Amino acid sequence: MAKKTAREKLVAKKEIKKVVMDKAWGGIPVGGTMLVATPLMVDAYIREIPHGETNTIPEMRDALAAQQGCSGTCPMSTSIFVRMVAEAALEDLADGKSVSEITPFWRMITSLDKMVGKLNVDPAWIDEQRALEANT
């Protein structure tokens, strides 16, 4: 069986989960509701970040939780989904799409983020994209 591409992983059917916490974790108190988002929710959020602006993963987690009426969003799955979005965007770029056609993951992560070491991209490229957008 062939290994799934990042794009296939991104669009795989996943449902939103809301978990009532029986112990505090990830900044969510006991009794609070933790949102486990989906990869496509994360992709859509990143696509909505305006050109020239940036956001952080914690800011996105707070916004997604608020949209869903939850106390917080799972930090672990959210980071995995951001990486998945970035990998799918890089696949699209390698397949010939232009930078303007892919999900602008550089608006969410910087070259210094740990996950960048796992991506098939020169960290300097992320900095270049951020700088290009900041100047336009």
Major sheet description? 3 strands, mixed
SSE order, one letter for each helix or strand:
HEEHHEHH
CATH T-level topology: Arc Repressor Mutant, subunit A
In the CATH hierarchy, the architecture is Orthogonal Bundle
Give a short overview:
With 136 residues, the protein is mainly alpha-helical.
Characterise this structure.
The protein is mainly alpha-helical and 136 residues long. The chain has a single domain (6-134), classed as Arc Repressor Mutant, subunit A. The chain is built from five helices and three strands, in the order αββααβαα. The longest helix is centred in the middle third of the chain and has 20 residues, at 75-94. The termini are far apart.
Which keywords apply here?
Arc Repressor Mutant, subunit A, mainly alpha, 136 residues, three-stranded mixed beta sheet
